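User: Can you predict the 3D structure for this chain?
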Amino acid sequence: LGPGIEYSSETAAIAAAASTLRRLYFAEGLVTLPAIAAKWAPLGVANDPTDLNQHWTPGVSAYYSALGGDPSRPIQLATQDPVPACGALSAGSGRPVVVPWSGRPPATAGPGMSEGGDPVTGLPAAIGGFVFPLALAPGGAARYGDDFEEVGAPGCYGQAWRCGTRLASAPGTVVVAAAAGVLRSPSADEGATGVAFWIDRGDGDRLGYGPLARYEPGVGPGVGVRPGQPLGAGPGVLDLVWERRGARINPFPLLHATRPADG
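Assistant: Here is the predicted structure, written as structure tokens:
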């Protein structure tokens, strides 16, 4: 909050921001990011001559998503899915293990792309050399579900769907390249929906990752990566999206065929 406001600690600053939200926004029924933006950063106002306020909602939504929230829902924690806190999911101990796909065809619900089907053949979609995007130490846990059609950003096929899979793990879990390719930056619109970078395979396939908490040295746009190569550490929630020829494919069947989710 500010400018020109100083706080004695980060805890005090967070408490002041929470109090401001409660008194000046929640009390008026403004509980979603677009509704808050309409009061805090409205469009077309005199003190915003260069229209910077248009970036407030997508920008804050991207940060909110990176922290594990769903920006399409009210922002109170009671309306959000539980996300792992420190210790809520086991990090395991020992050397992280990369789990490759065995080649067994994924079990899809049907030929549709939202069911895990290839957009051309309708057969179960897969990627040669695919590995699970999290390298977990023995005893480490990863939880995820078939949430492609859950309501949430970014939306696809004319629906307000998540269009990807959200994986929960212990904060600090090693995130690896799920396939060989070249790292690419997202467009402004893609970044606003939470895609931090793409692994471009060069054959019409690309995998998009949600923001990481930390990146390995040398990881950046234009860098080639191999399957299982460490990219950084996750914040506890990782969003994975999969595009083939511009169409979003549900990654859940391939993920589940590689490493089934922990209960």
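The helical segments are 10-24, 33-40, 56-66, 188-192, 252-258. The chain has a mean pLDDT of 90.
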